[in-house]
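Field reference: sequence -> structure
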Amino acid sequence: MFRKILIANRGEIACRVIKTARRMGILTVAVHSEADADALHVRLADEALCIGPAPSRESYLVAEKIIDACKRSGAEAVHPGYGFLSENAAFARQVEEQGIVFIGPKHASISAMGDKIASKELAAKAGVNTIPGHDEPIATADDAVAIAQGIGYPVMIKASAGGGGKGLRVAWNDKETHEGFTSCRNEARNSFGDDRVFIEKFVEEPRHIEIQVLGDAHGNHVFLWERECSIQRRHQKVIEEAPSPFLDEATRLAMGAQAVALAKAVNYQSAGTVEFVVGKDRSFYFLEMNTRLQVEHPVTESITGLDLVELMIRIAAGEPLGFGQQEIKREGWAIECRINAEDPFRNFLPSTGRLVRYLPPPQTMTAAHPVPPDGGVRVDTGVREGGAIPMHYDSMIAKLIVRGDDRPDAIAKMRSALNAFVIRGISSNIPFQSALLAHPKFAAGDFNTGFIASEYPHGFSIDSVAHTDPDFLVALAAALHDRTDARARPDRAATRSWTVVLRRPDGTRTQLRADVTDHANHLGVEIDGRVHQIRLDTPLRSIVVEGEADGIPFHAQADRTPIGWRISHHGAGIDVLVIPTHVAPLEALMPFKAPPDLSKVLLSPMPGLLVEIAVSVGQKVLAGEKLATIEAMKMENILFAQQDCVVAEIAASPGESLAVDHVILRFE
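Structure field:
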């Protein structure tokens, strides 16, 4: 076994590998950019080396710097995590040539599967179902349109070296094909240094289901069941689960057999994932093979009890798997939510900055220990309170994983865990995750990869997370305020009357009377004739509020604001002012200050790099036309005109780093 390994990555996956290595008695070396000097993975590792400036192309993507770090530290092996150099065959070969062990498949396997065109041909030869399409690299956007017309819309445009949703577009007509081809090439060139693009038929109502495989150097290959990854936004996974609620046993076994056949065909030696698109009739087709550890690997660990990182390390050290297909268990149901630094109420724009508060829910299971019989909660993260979310890397803050007895139990556990996950200082997608879990179609398992686009066609808004019992939020606000008041007025009456004022961004407000009465172990809160019995089990000023409401346990969040409370539960939130009832008539007279008119300027909605200004001074622009492009967290974000206008001034230049609300354009 290795004495010391280097992790050629950052964030939560670097922390994840370090934890397993430590349990195995292996020393770890972290590498980091200048921006990550104080990152969590740097603190967790036994030693750390700086490998360059913040941009990944000058640090984490430079193979020579990683290899030099291995030599300087004496690391015998390198684990690449996911992303960055994890599926770079040239890097794996360089590592091997330097006498360092690559904790992953051999470079020949990566090369065979890393090219989507070549891998599709190899899969077909191995007897794996493949999708009809054009398998040769496409030279121009016009060629792409002609090919798409021949295949028949809709089509999927994919960069050969793409991954993580980058270099991928679905096109439904000639215009979308022309634009999507150009964007795919640009994203692939910038992210992977390879701008080859091909096109294939897009399976309508598709589900994205993948099979986890393992192979060793002794010819043993197995599959560890499937993961359902169909809940996606912009082709990036949002929620993953294992097993799939859609597959029957026959389809599951057939997909597993094909995945193993492909792994054998390339002499695969590590953990890998064979991704399939599955039609509504359960027909399935090969998409690609990811020759690395997947972001969503914890759900597989949760139902099998296996530590995939440990297995990767042992396989790389030459050990056999030690178990066969029949010994792999499948117990319970696991779900993973990706907690990202983005604002779901502003079209998921990236949110960077400092984590003023970061309090994940308590963990009751990890990859390093057996899963508890009744399941539990796991948090894989690479951040800590007070740390920063930089603009240079992807937006993931953490992965929240739960395992339940069955799917309904897992959903309930996840909703409770999301309620208890505190993130302040930046925005997160937790409200969006809560809304998805509460959606009737998700609960029924009735979804495909187009679920988010079809269910939220106009984007995500406050209305998307309307609470099923809004009075509960009001009653909780009244109970919290009443408990705070008790410290100041211990001799108060047995029943207190409060007015809860709901304040909305547009200035409208609603007043609701709440009468609070003391009982032996709870408060009775009466609103409109209905009494809520609320027991609070957490101390004053705790953001996470735990207790019981009408006999049902709950977690919620309560923030004190300058003039009131912000109450959040199941993704929904209300801003309220709680005042004595006799003051309510005066509060109703308070004026509302309208926000400033911003229709004459284009502001940067996020921190990022201004890549392009698509208009000129004096140009007449129609609503929907492209104005500018900003690159943030490795993704291109195009800003469009919201109304007809004339450009009066260009206030920023391409190549300039922008802050939130930086003025880009002014209009007449």
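Note: Residues 227 and 242 are 5 Å apart (CA to CA).
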